[in-house]
Amino acid sequence: QVQLVESGGGLVQPGGSLRLSCAASGLTLDYYAIAWFRQAPGKEREGVSYMAKDGSTYYADSVKGRFTISRHNAKNMVYLQMNSLKDEDTAVYYCALGDDSIWWSEGYGMHYWGKGTLVTVSS
């Protein structure tokens, strides 16, 4: 049974940093593209960052230069380093695994999803 469990969310002040983790089980991470999504209250889900199987990365314009996606295949772990956090980064963050897809930000090709971890940026 495939399971994705996010952790690392919490309350942080504007300008602060957080590192989200996603532990994957029941599969071999090497075979999957990875992604992070977020959903703020009252808003639609947004694709935040994506790493294809070949290691190429993509970021939403709103987080470019501040967020970094990474993976540790041997540990079956996915990470999202978030720096210079802003109020508008407040959301539930989800990790997802799936196939390489140019439509990743819409969720296409993503087969497995975690339940999310809440990030609140507030002073």
Overview of the structural elements:
- There is one protein chain.
- The protein has 123 residues and is an all-beta fold.
- The protein has strands at residues 3-7, 10-12, 18-25, 33-39, 46-51, 57-59, 67-72, 77-82, 91-98, 110-113, 117-121.
- Strands 2, 4, 5, 6, 9, 10 and 11 form a 7-stranded mixed beta sheet that branches. A 4-stranded antiparallel beta sheet has the order 1-3-8-7, with no helix packed on it.
Overall morphology:
globular
- One letter per element, helices H and strands E, the order comes to EEEEEEEEEEE
Radius of gyration: 13 Å
Structural class by SSE content: mainly beta
Largest sheet: 7 strands, mixed
Poorly predicted runs: none
Mean pLDDT across all amino acids: 96
* Tally of DSSP helical segments: 0
**DSSP strand (E) fraction?**
over 45%
How much helix, percentage-wise, in residues? under 10%
C-alpha termini separation: 40 Å
Number of strands: 11
List the helices and strands and how they pair.
Blueprint: E1 3-7, E2 10-12, E3 18-25, E4 33-39, E5 46-51, E6 57-59, E7 67-72, E8 77-82, E9 91-98, E10 110-113, E11 117-121
Parallel strand pairs: 2-11
Antiparallel strand pairs: 1-3, 3-8, 4-5, 4-9, 5-6, 7-8, 9-10, 9-11
